[in-house]
Amino acid sequence: MQTTVRAAITFDGVGLHSGRPARLTIRPAGAEHGIWFKRTDIRLGDTLVPARWDVVQRSPLCTRIVNAAGVEVQTVEHVMAALAGCGVHNALVEIDGPEVPILDGSAAPFVRGILGRGLRTLAAPVRALQILKPVEVRTDAGWARLSPHDGVRMDFHISFADAAIGTQRKSLDLSNGAFVRELSDSRTFCRKADVDTMRAHGLALGGTLDNAVVVEGARVLTPGGLRHADEAVRHKMLDALGDLALAGHPVLGLYEGHKAGHAMTNLLLHEVFATDGAARLVEIGPEMRARLPGVGIQREEIPAVA
Hints:
Layout: E1 3-5, E2 9-14, E3 21-27, E4 35-39, E5 48-50, E6 56-57, E7 64-66, E8 72-74, H1 77-85, E9 91-95, H2 108-117, E10 119-121, E11 127-131, E12 135-138, E13 143-147, E14 152-159, E15 167-173, H3 178-183, E16 189-191, H4 192-200, E17 213-216, E18 219-220, H5 231-244, E19 251-258, H6 262-274, E20 279-283, H7 286-289
Parallel strand pairs: 4-9, 11-19, 14-19, 16-17
Antiparallel strand pairs: 1-10, 2-3, 3-9, 4-5, 6-7, 7-8, 11-20, 12-13, 13-19, 14-15, 17-18
């Protein structure tokens, strides 16, 4: 059955790119509501922004959603990954500015908050988007593909010149709480040279060594080093789950990404919905339920860093 959070959960931090203070509150919502963001700092007009693939605006460094009135919320991918990974289907996400707080650069603080409050079951069945045939998008940067699979699985590959990251590949079945255990604490990462360039252009103003993994060649500049030897590819998978959650339903299929990012995953969703016979909505029964992210999580599995 569909779920929502039992009670409101508030997170305070700063926006990664704006550097401005940001407060975000996840509130319960009824069945069939889905995930919506609400800008509490705007008094007039349409302040609601749907967490949906077709309102994503191009932004190379994060996922930005914009409603018909031009009201936007950016950097939604980590909180969306946490909601999807914890099995939350309905929520109203209030935010007092244009950017979600970056917190520690991962989804783990959101996960701890959500699971700490607990979930409430609603009187409506879960529907999932089942992939029926392979759909692929390619750019000069890389490619992404969704293929039929009887659960939710990812296979991701990245390659960076910096030896601290290098070439990494990871495959993961996301059932039985695997997102919480394996991916949720992996932080956003970047090269020091990219940080310098972004700041020169007024971006990454809220980025620090406490909320991102910063590398320079073979060195990891962030104190304490990496949480996982392959933290970079794990974070790319975290981002992909958050971006796929904008389909509005859990996606039953195999996601493969080769040097894929936010924009490519969104292009892939556009291709899925534009391709006849590529996918269908199916009601989830007891047998299929165990294959979805967020089912079977134990509190002790929450990463200690959260």
